[in-house]
Amino acid sequence: MAETNVASGSSLAVKHYSAALFANTLKGASAMENLVGPVEPTAAMQKIAGQTQAGMPLVRIDNLMKNAGDSVSLDLVDTISGEPLMGDVNREGRGSALSFSSMDIRIDLSSKVIDAGGSMSQQRTKHQLREIALAQLSGYFPRLNVQTALVHLAGARGSQTGSDWVIPLQSSANFSSVMVNTVKAPTYNRHYVVNGANLAQGGQQLGSIVSTDALKLTHLDLLRKRIDDMDQPLQSVKLAGDRAAQTSKMWVFLATPNQYSILLTEGSLRAFQQNAINRAAYLDTRHPLFAGEVGMWNGILVIKNERAVRFLPGENTTVITSANAATATETNQAVNGSLTTGFAVERGLLLGAQALGIAYGRTKVSGMQYGWKEHWYNFESNLEVMGEVVCGHMKTRFSIDDGTGAKVPTDFGVIAVDSAVPL
After folding, report:
1. What integer best gives the mean pLDDT of the chain?
2. Fewer CB atoms < 10 Å away: N or C end of the chain?
């Protein structure tokens, strides 16, 4: 068979590498990637938009009809309540009105350019240069995706840095454009700070946090109790093939590496780890969420995350106070500047279903979510390659009835939990 050469910039090469980039990104090695369910187009709208399974914390919407700069709408219908109509009482005109709350996810184009080689690369073929650049971009975009999701869920970037981080600090002039959608501080009713053996509601407690306010298994018990006491709690996470999804409800706690290490020092470590093994047995197939470093306590699957949203003593972060709960107006709150030297505050995330929406559009170059472009210059001796994605992340927030008839802004599927950690 004659050898087939794909010319630089040909439509065949563009399609091939665009698809490969998308596939590699979705398989990026991260616990958060396992929180997205498979696409299940069970309704007409889902068939159009390509929405993933709604029982998972991250819902991906592959709306390929959209272009860069457009937005995708998410809608919540409130559960009806009130007394039933009894007997032969007149029922005409006494129907309960449907109530909706909506939010829009804006999508935009994100790109990364790599110079794949110059005069020192002339001995390499074009195909090899492409493979090297593809490998680099296939590592870059998973980090961008996961870190964007983490910052939106946490409602803050924090100050942890390093070569692994691709999201700039919140003080950077580019932060807002990189995040595409506004990063929103946790709502008052979805924010807790460890306070000794208790959990203080709202972020103002950060001003008084001390080094002994570490996250313990007893705090997971308190979180479960708070969920059970809520009129409209976080929806439980439903994994495909989970035979105990209704009888043994489950939520996911993304712990920072430091928070997870502290939990491992608890006296109930063996039960903490065995509970996860026992719960995994109810799944038809082994789910990747149960792989790696995990434990389970009171229905909460604890997963060690790779990165931390961290605040150092004296640093500011935005919170919503009890006085502003009804408006979600944000104010600055400084972390206790007298926190013991060598300690910081890190934010864990308790996740239910539908905590974050991830909307994808399509790139012009490939017609898919991800695109690949290449450009030869300097008399065909230098190659630049570019990966791009049309995407937007946003924490799901709706105005939910607080039980009195008032609508209160509420983070729909995530609770932020701050605790002190040693560095």
Report:
1. 82
2. N
